[in-house]
Each structure stands twice: as C-alpha cells, then as structure tokens.
Amino acid sequence: MKTTLEKFDNNVFKLNVEIDNEVAGQEYNKACRQFGENVTIPGFRKGKAPRAIIEKHVGQDRIKERVLDTLLPGILADVISEHQLDLVTEPVIESYNFEVGQPVTVTARIEVKPEITLPKYKGRTVDVPEFKVEENALEQQLEHLQNKFAKMEEVVGRPTDKDDIVFIDFNGSIEGEPIKGGAGKNHQLDLANSHFIPGFAEQIVGKNIGEEFTINVTFPEDYQDKNIAGKNAEFIIKINEIKKKVLPELNDEFAQKLGPFNTIEDLKADLQKYLDQTRENENRIRAEKAIIDKIIEETKLDTPDTMINREAKFLMEEVEKNFKSQGVSWEKVIEKQGYENTWNSLREEATKRVKTSLVLSAIAKTENIQLTEEDFAEKVRELAINYNVEDKAIYDQMSQNPAIAQGLSQQIMSQKIVNYLLDNNEVKYIKDDSI
Predict the structure, then answer these.
(1) Which residues are 241's β-sheet partners?
(2) Adjacent-strand bridge partners of 4
(3) Is residue 425 classed as helix, strand or coil in its secondary structure?
C-alpha cells in the first residue's frame, strides 16, 4: 500500500492511497462470501452461490463499497496518526478507481485545524466593566412583589388618577378615516404602565366614569405600521370603570404567603442573596468574555471559510427550526429580512464561534486540559438534580441520542478551559461607563 499526503489549501490536505491488488482482491472475495451468506439468491443455498452470481445479484459497486468501508478507516487512522493531523471533520472520499484484479486508488480530502499562534494567555491583567445592582434594588424587588400580589378596588366618586387601572372604549381615526386595529371595547389600561402611543394614557387622567371625550396623539416616526407612522390621530374615549391597586403591607404575614419565610426580614435576606448571586454571576460572565475576547483579538489565525460556512449553515438550520416551532413561516421571514442579509449576519456569529472554538482548543492542547470521566459524571449529576430525575435517566437519553452526549462533552470541556483562564489571569473590575 502506498500513501501520499499533499497540502491542498491552508487547512486542507489531499491524500492519495494505492491499495495493492492482492490485498484488495482478498477483501473483495471476503465481501462476496459475506453477501452470499446473508442474501437469498434463487436456486442457491446461502453461502453456495458462485462469485459471478453474487456479483450479478448484489452488484459490484455495492461489494466494492463494502471493501472500501472495511479497508479505508484503518488506512486513514494510520495516516492521521503518522502525520499528527488535528482533524476538523471526518475525511471525505472524493474519488476512487476500483477495478477487480488491479490496484485500487483512492483520493480523500482531509480538513485540519488551521495553524494558530497564541498570544500570552496566562499571567495577565484584564480590565472588566463591573456589574453592580442599583442601590435601591432590594426596594424594587419588594415593590415588584407588592404589585404582583396587589388587589384591585373599584373607584367611585372621583376622577382617574395617574396610578389607576381604567376600562375604556376607544375609537381612533386619522383625518376622519378609521385606524385599522385602532378601536376597542372595555379595554383594560394601566395608566402608570401604558404601552399605548405616547401621550395617550396621560390625557385620560382626571376624567370621570361615563365621560366621553376626545384626545389627540401623534404616532412615533418609527411606528411599526409605516402607513400611519408620524401622523396625527384622534381618539374618542369613554371610561367605563376605574380601579386602583391596593398593595399588600410589607409584613411577616405577607412574607409567609410567598414561601418558607417566618418574617419579612427572612424574605428580604432571600432577595438580597438573589441580588448578590446575580451580581456575582454577571461579573463572572463579563470576566470570561473579556479574557476570551482579548486572547482571540491577539491570536494570529486565518479562519477557514469552510469552517465558517459549515457553522453558519448549522445556525441557519437552528434559526429556521426555532421559527417553525413557533408557527412562524420561515419563507416569510427570509422574504422580509432577505436571504443574503440573514446569511451574512449568521456568518458573523459563526466566525466568532469558530474562532473561539479554535483558540480554546489550542489552549487545551498546549496545557493538556482533558475531559475526565469524573467531569462528565459530575455534569450528569448536576443535570439530574436540575430536572429532578435519576442519573440513569440522563444516561438513557444520551444512549438514544449520541449528539446529546457530544454536546455535553463540548460544553464541559469549554468550561474547563475558561475556568483555567480565569484561574491563571487577574481580573480588574472597573467602573462600567455604559450604565
């Protein structure tokens, strides 16, 4: 057997293989016998049909494919090991010439990871914009809970207040023409948290039940319906009912209704713990991103289009699947956004993903960071706890769908590398001017 490997592109090798006719012939005869023992040929007992009959019944191409499926994996594995090739995908057989009694020639395409020159990725200081919760965040959380469990009381004997809930009939028009979708009956409107046109809710304040009046508003220039964007409109309003929110008191009784809390102080402590955890998690995410972005920015790497396009295609399929699962027509989405715009946008995201994957992989190789059985088992235990199932249920699901196990392995490995980078670099939190 002869093999020659030549570089075809930046990260693509062309492998030429010549298999000796004797080796190929022996494997061909073996494949014929296997087919003869497993297929039914009229007039012959299994395993007794002559080779010529088997070839005619099964087809030579099918027999040759089995021969190649048997011989090539070992040959390719030897070449990959000998030349220490770091593959991106499985080798692709581009062509072969297989004539019985003659040497077999095969041409394969092998795509490997591109050359990477890593910058300094240990012992450096990285500035990270610090995430901080607002000073009154705890008060906001408590207020949110009060509003969530507020009761509604009917209002009589006074006009509407800016914090009221009103039930209204409305009918809108522009220059005397009705607005499509611009009418409603007994619509509930929270005057303090209105998502209507700016100025709409404000003009209802101070009005009484049963009162019918007209308000004037202007649709925003960026309004979704371009036919009425920026235009002046008139709405006839009638108030049917006024209600006000009655917030529960922040006391021990309120806390006890929300969970395993004895006092309001227990509830506050739990909310503060949540806020602290949120701040800690967000700052870790920011630190991870800052370190990785800095290393990628300084890495010398020519990202192959083949890898980017393959990842972009995967992303396109994921986006399409998500839209369809929501009952949205993918064809209409593409028609509205444009295929080229959608593809280019996904290619940008794909480029980031591929670069990140290549850089993290190179660091793992340099530092000999590996996935262990304990790493995997620990992640499975974590998932089992989160989903309230036994570990076996997770393993059973992975045995039915190997892609789950592969994705989980990649996730664990990526996090191990990121943890390594966090442990070996100093994070300096700085004021976030964007807030």
Answers:
(1) 167
(2) 16
(3) coil
- Predicted confidence pLDDT, tens digits, the chain (435 residues): 899 999 887 789 999 999 999 999 999 999 999 998 888 888 888 878 888 998 898 899 999 999 999 999 999 999 999 998 989 889 999 999 999 899 999 999 999 999 999 999 999 999 999 999 999 999 999 999 999 999 999 998 999 999 999 999 999 999 999 998 899 999 999 999 898 999 999 999 999 999 999 999 999 998 888 889 999 999 999 999 999 999 999 999 999 999 999 999 999 999 999 999 999 999 999 999 999 999 999 999 999 898 999 999 999 999 999 999 999 899 988 988 899 999 999 999 999 999 999 999 999 999 999 999 999 999 999 999 999 999 999 999 999 998 899 899 999 999 999 999 999 999 999 987 665
What is d(CA 347, CA 330) in angstroms, rounded to the nearest whole number?
18
pTM tops 0.90, yes or no: no
Q: What does the alpha-carbon distance between residue 139 and residue 250 come to, in Å, rounded to a whole number?
A: 11
Work out the number of other CB atoms within 10 angstroms of the CB of residue 213.
Answer: 13
Domains annotated for the chain, with CATH where assigned, are: 2-112 (3.30.70.1050), 152-246 (3.10.50.40), 284-430 (1.10.3120.10)
CA–CA gap between residue 126 and residue 291 (Å, rounded) = 6
Q: Is 49 exposed, middle or buried (0-12, 13-18, 19+ CB in 10 A)?
A: buried
Quick one: which of 43, 71, 74 has its CA closest to 57?
43
Angle between helices 264-298 and 402-423 (to 10 degrees): 90
Query: Which residue carries 């794909």 as its tokens?
Result: 350
